[in-house]
Amino acid sequence: MGFNLFFNFTINSRTPLLEPCLPDLDTRIDQAKELADRFGPNAVAWRFDPVCFYTDDTGCVKNNLADFLYIADAMAAMGITVCVTSFYDPYRKVDTRLRYLTKTGRAFICFTDPSPADKKQLISRMAGQLEIKHIRLHLCCEAALYNTVKSRYSNIFENACINGPLLKKLYRGNPEIRRDYGQRAKKGCRCTIAVDIGSYQDHPCFHNCLFCYANTEMDLRIKQGVPQ
Questions:
Q1: pTM above 0.85, yes or no
Q2: CB atoms closer than 10 angstroms to residue 51
Q3: pLDDT for position 202
Q4: Per-residue model confidence (pLDDT) at position 227
Q5: Average pLDDT in the 59-83 region?
Q6: Where in the sequence is the domain holding 25, given as residue range(s)?
Q7: Rounded to an integer, what distance in angstroms lies between the CA atom of residue 32 and that of residue 27?
Q8: What span, in angstroms and rounded, lies between the C-alpha atoms of 205 and 77?
Q9: Do the domain assignments include residue 72?
Q10: What is the C-alpha to C-alpha distance for residues 28 and 71, in angstroms, rounded to an integer?
Q11: How many alpha carbons lie under 13 Å from residue 135 in its C-beta half-sphere?
């Protein structure tokens, strides 16, 4: 149809508790490969996002990092050179989901926030692992963390999910390249001005990821009091 396309494609580790309705990991990796083959690896940014730490009904602190290197190897083999990440941010609607799951006996989960020192150590390790694979690590709205690690690795950057200069480089034309200061600029968002063409309210997501800020099918069922 003549559209120039760019894909922010999220592939996290196998965590059915956090992402209950996704295809299995290898299927998602195959989907990323199809995008890279059809549109070029420079038109795909791999998001390992968000990094989640949480406790479940065992009381143990867990995370979703188990398959990070496995996914990174697959992305590198495709020629994808960007990994975008951030840490879990709390949202009121997420709290509502978690209370609902606990109340109905479906699951118990409590997200936890690592210390700044632990975050710095983790991001430094991820950057080092990606550097040898020629993948850049972009931090999404993590300005304070970025400022503590940027001098240690040459492959760490702040992120622009909507990146006008990159789109111009890839496709020429005249995309908007001015910074969008209406976003979370103070937290490190580097997005350029854009217009959304969808709606979380009108277009709910059926993956039902527990950490997501979008409206999920679960949110709609909770509001309507419909059993799941």
A1: yes
A2: 21
A3: 81
A4: 54
A5: 97
A6: 7-159+195-224
A7: 9
A8: 30
A9: yes
A10: 10
A11: 31
Collapsing DSSP to helix, strand or coil, 31 comes out as helix
Q: What is the mean pLDDT of residues 57-70?
A: 95
Share of the chain above pLDDT 90, in %: 81
User: What is residue 168's predicted lDDT score, i.e. its pLDDT?
Assistant: 97
Judge whether 186 lies within some domain: no
- Total tally of structural domains belonging to the chain: 1
Q: How far is the C-alpha of 112 from the C-alpha of 115, rounded, in Å?
A: 10
Whether 67 contacts 26, CB under 8 Å: no
**b/e burial code for range 57-72 (CB count within 10 A of at least 16 → b):** eeeeebbbbebbeebb
Separation CA 215–CA 208 (nearest Å): 9
Q: Which residues contact 87 (CB under 8 A, 6 or more apart)?
A: 50, 51, 52, 113, 114, 119, 142, 145
Residue 164 counted as domain residue: no
Tokens standing for residue 153: 């690795």
DSSP 114-174: --HHHHHHHHHHHHHHHHTTT-EEEESS-HHHHHHHTTT-TTEEE--SS-HHHHHHHH-S-
Q: Which two tokens stand for residue 35?
A: 């995008």
**30 three-class SS:** helix
User: Is residue 97 pLDDT above 60, yes or no?
Assistant: yes
């240690």: which residue's tokens? 152
Query: pLDDT band at residue 73, thresholds of 50, 70 and 90?
Result: very high
